[in-house]
């Protein structure tokens, strides 16, 4: 018999998969599309015939073939049971194997048990038997396989999470500390890299801004970093870069028509550079305006904005910079407020950078800001107006230009009259002259457009707009002060506007009116003087409301009102005819209300200088009343105020000879009593006080004043006589005397005798020593004062000598120039006289 032939079954076909589930990569599709000639045969394959050919078995009956397939299925089911009975190896010892469908298989070890051995025996028996029994093995469908795969993936994820949680629990505190240290080290390294990056980008931009203009976006991105130090460093770096690369002109982006035009590469490059710079600058300003509202970045952002406004006020987006600066001009933070005020002052003083346009915009914004806040701002917000400067010659140049035009018209008429008498052959010359005049006019217009100097009319417009905004602000502040004081005097509740608030802007407003009083229109002078009179308390009302009115203001503010009224009057002497008696009355009453610790002595000294010392003529009764009031005032207050008052007394006595009768010591008062026979010290009007009937007995006490300067000045005044031929010169004003004595007050300290007089025995020797030491100290201080006085007189004399030398040199220079001019005229006349006889000889 021959050997039995072994039957080999065909392999199992792969499972059928839907076309939606098939994933094909882009590379495969690209490969197939590129090689369609070689892969075209695949579409023509007959899959059914191929499967039939693969699955057929030759020379085998159908029954035997079915039994073979059943045996193979049984064998597979036994293998699965064997895998279930096997033990899994520890996952640390053996790595899993991942199949194509995403399953993870771990190594297993079979269980050594009797049940497994029996199963194996049964398996062997079943394999040996040709006709085995079906053990009801169920084949899984495709959907069940998918659900099983999903379930297995979920279980694997849960196991991985549990393992991670266990590892986290098992972490020691050392690992946590090490992790934090690593994070800090990485953050520091990142900050250092960003700093180096900023430095590189900034240097590249400064070296070649046109080629590296894209680096601005990277610097802006770094300035938005979460670290505070890096963000501040980025803002400062961008500030330095923009200050250096911003051009000296205002960028205008091209229109749509201009973009459609064909231009050269250089023009395209320049357009790209300007647009990129402008967009980056805009983003930077938006970043600064957003950061200035945050407390941590406020000072840095305001400093950057102020620096840009001061450095490039001509560039784009100036309005946004000015708006931010004006909003912070009254900030409670002293640093920010002073920085913004300094920036506004630099704009006013350096108008050459922007041509005056920024000045007009800043003044108008401040005026609107004062109006919006109802005049309740810091005084520095209006004090910046004192830095403005106005050209007073603009009107004069206009008149001069008009006269020149009128003269030119006359000359042209004369020339035309002469030319009409000539022949018509000069028509060509006329046409040439017309062409020349046209070309000259065109050249002049182009030169004006290209030059940086502004036209006179433009400057006049800018100056008029600035003045109108400034005086509008000043008059609004005065009106608000009047209304608030009226409301307080009437007793209206605090809910009214300005009833519970003060007027902090009144002092800088009065200073500004005093400075620009010569520029105020004459139509407003009368109303201005009336406002100042009411604010100073000079209103005459029968119901006594004036007393309630002026009590709302401080002594310094009332003194400022008097000073401003006198400044306005002196600047417009020819146009105004106003009686200032009310202001003298107020000054006479304010002197008694003054307190050194509360009020400002500088303002009082200025009022004494302007109202009493600078006036050439004074009424005798008024002068005597002020002399008596100031002498009494000097007894009650400090050395600085006493010095200012005594200097004023000396000035009044020098100007009014009849007032020197107050120095006489008669039994019934002065020799010239006037219409009032008795002195009334409590009179409110100086003309009704009758001071000429009194005697300056205060000088006797002031000559014994503790301060040697006051005592020497009082003794010098008391030695003046009534003779009219005597002339006294005083080089010191009340302001100078006040400042000098206030500076000396710090170094001048009088040592008092602290010894007690209760015990006569103890003070016998010690009192003598103390008195001796005190006398020596006083003599030293008097010696120092004498030396200081002599030195001051010496330096004044030296200053006068140097001034006379300078004036003499200027006089000699002008005299020599006049002589040279006369010689030139003589030579010119001689030349003309010599040329006339030559002409006669030729004829």
From TrEMBL:
<dbReference type="GO" id="GO:0005730">
    <property type="term" value="C:nucleolus"/>
</dbReference>
<feature type="domain" description="CCAAT-binding factor">
    <location>
        <begin position="559"/>
        <end position="714"/>
    </location>
</feature>
<dbReference type="InterPro" id="IPR016903">
    <property type="entry name" value="Nucleolar_cplx-assoc_3"/>
</dbReference>
<feature type="compositionally biased region" description="Basic and acidic residues">
    <location>
        <begin position="120"/>
        <end position="133"/>
    </location>
</feature>
<feature type="compositionally biased region" description="Basic residues">
    <location>
        <begin position="407"/>
        <end position="416"/>
    </location>
</feature>
<protein>
    <submittedName>
        <fullName>Nucleolar complex protein</fullName>
    </submittedName>
</protein>
<dbReference type="InterPro" id="IPR005612">
    <property type="entry name" value="CCAAT-binding_factor"/>
</dbReference>
<feature type="region of interest" description="Disordered">
    <location>
        <begin position="407"/>
        <end position="440"/>
    </location>
</feature>
<dbReference type="Pfam" id="PF03914">
    <property type="entry name" value="CBF"/>
</dbReference>
<feature type="region of interest" description="Disordered">
    <location>
        <begin position="112"/>
        <end position="133"/>
    </location>
</feature>
<dbReference type="InterPro" id="IPR011989">
    <property type="entry name" value="ARM-like"/>
</dbReference>
<dbReference type="InterPro" id="IPR011501">
    <property type="entry name" value="Noc3_N"/>
</dbReference>
<dbReference type="InterPro" id="IPR016024">
    <property type="entry name" value="ARM-type_fold"/>
</dbReference>
<dbReference type="GO" id="GO:0003682">
    <property type="term" value="F:chromatin binding"/>
</dbReference>
<dbReference type="GO" id="GO:0006270">
    <property type="term" value="P:DNA replication initiation"/>
</dbReference>
<feature type="domain" description="Nucleolar complex-associated protein 3 N-terminal">
    <location>
        <begin position="194"/>
        <end position="284"/>
    </location>
</feature>
<keyword id="KW-0539">Nucleus</keyword>
<feature type="compositionally biased region" description="Polar residues">
    <location>
        <begin position="765"/>
        <end position="776"/>
    </location>
</feature>
<feature type="coiled-coil region">
    <location>
        <begin position="142"/>
        <end position="169"/>
    </location>
</feature>
<keyword id="KW-0175">Coiled coil</keyword>
<feature type="compositionally biased region" description="Basic and acidic residues">
    <location>
        <begin position="425"/>
        <end position="440"/>
    </location>
</feature>
<dbReference type="Pfam" id="PF07540">
    <property type="entry name" value="NOC3p"/>
</dbReference>
<feature type="region of interest" description="Disordered">
    <location>
        <begin position="751"/>
        <end position="776"/>
    </location>
</feature>
<comment type="similarity">
    <text>Belongs to the CBF/MAK21 family.</text>
</comment>
